[in-house]
Amino acid sequence: MFIILGERERNIEQSRDELYCPNCNATRAFKRMRIGSYFTLFFIPLFETRRIKDYVECLHCKLQFNPDAVNSDPPSLAYRAVTAARSDLESGTAVEQVIDKLAKAMTTRELAKQFVDSAAGAARRKCKACNLTYILIVENCNCCERQLAAE
To answer: Which structural domain range is residue 105 located in?
Structure first.
């Protein structure tokens, strides 16, 4: 009589939670997963011999994250506003255009300006033709395509 012993890896769903997904930028359903190595008898897993990895997976976008990288609390409005403003500025959008965009979503234009100033920093470039302001990494005006001068 042969007894077949072995070991194999298994993906086991631990639980489901509602967490903030950084990729979707929204609260989504997640499943908590564990990959473990299991002792097997006749190819039937009996018990876990070692834990290999824990992760969470967004059920909407299917991306996997370290469990410590996501939580149930979405980032604050201020954090999201500064992050969005920084992204727009780095893609070549003028400071004034980003302020206009945020002002439509914010309560006041002054608050939008504070968020954009925080994201843009103090050093900037200016288009002399269009009178638009950009962050230092932008070299050409997105309106007239002219090269920007340091402010």
So the answer is: 77-150
